[in-house]
Amino acid sequence: MQTGFTIGYMNFTVILFLLTGGALLWFDVQGYRHKGMNKEEKAARFLGWINIAMGGIGYVGYWIYGMLL
Which residue, 51, 61, 67, 68, has most beta carbons within 10 Å? Predict the structure, then answer.
């Protein structure tokens, strides 16, 4: 019998992707910009947006998955 209450890891994964992406964009990019480290700034910006995109895709995918069940 299914009660409808589940504990999954997807919510934590989405939150971690969004938080780490935001932290990369907020802290690392500013630090690299002030130090004049252009390559590192570009890499941090790219990885930050990748993390945010993966968090968004995970959230939408989990929402669609939940609607199909």
Answer: 51
Coil, strand, or helix at residue 47? helix
Tell me the pTM: 0.82
Amino acid at 16: L
CB 29 within 8 A of CB 48: yes
- Count of the separate structural domains present in the chain: 1
Give the C-alpha separation, 49 to 7, whole Å: 28
Structural domain span for residue 50: 10-68
